[in-house]
Write a structure and sequence with these properties.
Oligomer: single chain
Order of helices and strands: HHEEEEEEHEEHE
Protein name: DUF1801 domain-containing protein
Helix content: 25-40%
CATH class: Alpha Beta
Radius of gyration: 15 Å
InterPro entries: YdhG-like
Strand order of the largest sheet: 1-2-5-6-8-7
Strand content: 15-25%
CATH topology: Aspartate Aminotransferase, domain 1
Number of helices: 4
Pfam family, one: DUF1801
Number of domains: 1
Largest sheet: 6 strands, antiparallel
Number of strands: 9
Structural class: alpha+beta
Length: 142
């Protein structure tokens, strides 16, 4: 059985954000923390060395792979901010058409800056993810 090697750490979220070279990404990261903490009601924590996560759930796939992951998260990477809040539902696909300027990865949304996207739609995407994960997986409350 394969287990996820990335876990929540005790690293300081604000200290991590201070290491980001781009001032706009720093400001956007602080805004994302506000939005995600409000959406989920849980504080930001570092998940591995570079992902800021919110909440936690346990997943187990048919393949046997299982682990714990943040319910919502993001990472201010050099090329773009990676948003980890996409569940692939039809509802979310509808929201994506209204989101604004972004690129899509397999399971994440890449944005250059928050001003490129509609924050109301982002909040709807977050709420949809929280709902999806709460119904499909076991949420871990701390």
């Amino acid at each position: 059985m394969s287990v996820n090697k990335t876990h929540y750490t005790e690293a300081n979220v604000l200290a991590f954000i201070e290491t980001v070279d781009n001032l706009q990404k720093k400001e956007d990261s602080l805004r994302l923390i506000e939005l995600m903490e409000t959406a989920l009601g849980e504080k930001a924590k570092m998940f591995g060395p570079s992902i800021i996560g919110f909440g936690k759930y346990h997943y187990k796939y048919d393949s046997g792979h299982e682990g714990e992951a943040p319910i919502l998260g993001f990472s201010p990477r050099k090329a773009a901010i990676s948003l980890y809040l996409y569940s692939g539902s039809a509802e979310q696909d509808g929201f994506l058409t209204q989101l604004g300027k972004f690129k899509m990865g397999k399971a994440c949304i890449y944005v250059k800056k928050l001003s490129d996207i509609n924050l109301e739609i982002l909040q709807k995407l977050m709420a949809s993810s929280i709902d999806f994960i709460s119904k499909k997986y076991q949420r871990i409350l701390e």
